[in-house]
């Protein structure tokens, strides 16, 4: 089971708690996790990645195992610690300021 933590506004939209567990078929990648997430929670479609291009939205970042995975290819396999459920995949709202 893959553990996913979403930012508050997406948790609120999906009406879920702090963490979601998903059954994702191998190979487990960010794209595969988002496919399952959007199928189980259709209200999240278009909020994390663009409807047409499937690219990550500009103000969201992906982290796992203390690494920023945001610029990695979406189909790159996730770390083993995420795949076996020891660590969550974090979707974090980017912070911008001046």
Search tags:
98 residues; alpha+beta; Ubiquitin-like (UB roll); 3 helices; 5 strands
Describe what is shown at a glance.
This protein is an alpha+beta fold. The model has no long low-confidence stretch (mean pLDDT 94).
Describe this structure in words.
A hairpin with a 2-residue loop joins strand 3 (60-64) and strand 4 (67-68). This protein has helices at 8-14, 30-40, 80-83, and strands at residues 2-5, 20-22, 60-64, 67-68, 89-93. Strands 2-1-5-3-4 form a 5-stranded mixed beta sheet, with helices on one face. It is built from 3 helices and 5 strands; from the N terminus they run E-H-E-H-E-E-H-E. With 98 residues, the chain is α+β, with helices and mostly antiparallel strands. The mean pLDDT is 94. 22% of the residues lie in helices and 19% in strands. The protein has one domain (2-93): Ubiquitin-like (UB roll) (Roll), CATH 3.10.20.30.
